[in-house]
Request: fold
Amino acid sequence: MVKDFELMEHTADVGIVAYGASIAEAFVNAGRALFSLITEPDGISETEYRDIEVTTPDRESLLVAWLNELIFLFDAEGMLFKRFDITDLSTTRLKARAYGEVADNSRHILKVGVKAATYHMLEVDSSNGSRVRVLFDI
Reply:
């Protein structure tokens, strides 16, 4: 069975490597990996959604902007996401809908406080399948 993502240990930070048959699928799996750091994804219900659109100069920046927008929605609104549908993806623009719910302390145990996706060791590779790597400040 092929993994959707895996966690990477790094000095003072935490990282993820996400895989997919396409870049869009790898970006989706990076979002899933991010929220697996924050809480147990199985406990998240898909009762709400947020539409997300980010534009950047290149695909690497797009990955960082995508993940940082998800972190912002968690920080600002308490949103935990479980499922992501990317509706438009180019090298400079991403449009998606993220499904989840507002964190509920009686049901969600928060694990790691993720501050931001970083450019350190950032990688977006579509040479053989698709693979993305990103480190998070925690």
Summary: The mean pLDDT is 93. The radius of gyration is 14 Å. The helical segments are 23-38, 59-77. DSSP finds two helices and eight strands in the chain.
